[in-house]
Write a structure and sequence with these properties.
Blueprint lengths: L1 H18 L16 E7 L8 E7 L4 E6 L6 E10 L3 E8 L4 E9 L4 E7 L8 E6 L1
Antiparallel strand pairs: 1-2, 1-8, 2-3, 3-4, 4-5, 5-6, 6-7, 7-8
């Protein structure tokens, strides 16, 4: 009899614990990756970004930047890295020799990168940009 009671208690405990649903699913971050095609705009100096701009980020830290939408316009090649879980920085060079740096913040809710670009390694001399996936 004691064994039956223990068995019933164990089964009831399993049913109860497996039927409870966690409410923290809302707080779980989305599966997010920066890898892929991004298009947006850039601006010079303090001007609002209005000129088409594109980047393609590949696995392994390589990238392409476009003076136009991704896949069109002049293409530059470069490298990038991510840091602080929500930031990205990189450098790219056009075949004519112009080298540019960028730093941006990844906004996972909007699938967007907002940042600064420039000819200096701190990416402060050019202007601002945004890219959307």
């Amino acid at each position: 009899m004691k064994t039956k009671n223990l068995l019933y208690l164990a089964i009831a405990g399993l049913i109860f614990t497996s039927s409870c649903k966690k409410d923290d699913d809302k707080d779980t971050p989305k599966n997010y990756t920066h890898v892929g095609v991004w298009n947006g705009k850039y601006g010079n100096g303090s001007s609002e970004p209005k000129t088409n701009y594109g980047m393609v980020f590949f696995d392994g830290g390589n990238m392409h930047a476009y003076d136009g939408l991704a896949g069109s316009g002049s293409m530059a090649t470069g490298t990038y890295s991510t840091y602080a879980t929500d930031s990205i920085k990189g450098v790219y060079q056009y075949s004519g020799g112009n080298t540019f740096y960028f730093r941006g913040k990844l906004n996972t809710e909007r699938s967007r990168i907002d940042g600064r670009w420039g000819a200096d390694s701190l990416a402060t001399s050019g202007g601002t940009f945004y890219l959307a996936k």
